[in-house]
Amino acid sequence: MRAVGPLLGGLAALSLSMYAIAKEAPVLTYGDQESLTTTMAIVRGELGSGFSFYGQKRLMAACMQGMTGFWFSLAAPEQRKAHAENCLGHALSYAENTPLESLTWTVAARASFVLGDHDGLNRYLGYARRSAPNEQWVAGLRVNLAEDALAALSDINRLEHDQDLSLMVLSRKGISAIAGRYWANEGFRERITAVVEKMPNEDQRRFVSSVRRAAHN
């Protein structure tokens, strides 16, 4: 009889593991997050929310790719809408139990923007920044979204966008991306110049050097 307890515990653990594998499998087996197969699976609602952190991050990366990549510019409006709605649902479902995952909130903000929900855009973008204010890679995603949605940003998100721009200037990869945008967008040139002028002289010099390199590429 003493063996019954450990046996039941082992069976319960096995059942939980099999449930996790079954729930995670669609997310992990639909190609990589940049594939058209994955994007269309999201459109059709064939992918469930990620069970693990890795599965969720993979799903959120696929959602972000679908809403910002080449497919999005060519897809029919109803496909873009279905994709954004499903990504928003996955993001909010995961965030119920993991409210401090910045990529998830950034996806929710991007999906809200696609769906024309500016209140949701501003709310989730604020959550995204507060959950990871100093992670430069996700700050880059927030910057791209904020630039696309500039006219819809609240005053506080405009201010925090400037803070994200400052953070990007501090990293080599971030400053390269910003330097490229500098020459492509006149309005952005004015905004980033105002931000950089408030930064230390050394950061200003690095920014000017990066802009000059971008001009010759």
Largest sheet: none
Q: Total strand count, please?
A: 0
Q: What is the mean predicted local confidence, pLDDT?
A: 86
What's the helical proportion of residues? over 70%
**Strand content of the residues, in percent?**
under 5%
Which outline best applies? globular
Termini separation comes to 75 Å
Q: Structural class of the secondary structure composition?
A: mainly alpha
DSSP helical segment count:
12
The ordered H/E elements are HHHHHHHHHHHH
State the low-pLDDT regions, or none. 11-22
Rg, nearest Å: 21 Å
Describe the structure.
Helices cover 77% and strands 0% of the residues. With 217 residues, the chain is an all-alpha fold. The protein has a domain at 26-136. It has twelve helices and no strands.
Which features does this protein show?
plasmid; 217 residues; signal; 12 helices; Sel1 repeat family protein; mainly alpha
Short précis:
The protein has 12 helices and no strands.
Note the topology.
Layout (H helix, E strand, L loop, with lengths): L3 H26 L6 H8 L9 H16 L1 H5 L2 H19 L6 H13 L3 H14 L4 H13 L6 H15 L2 H13 L1 H11 L4 H15 L2
Helix pairs in contact: 2-3, 2-5, 3-5, 3-6, 5-6, 6-7, 6-8, 8-9, 9-10, 9-11, 10-11, 10-12
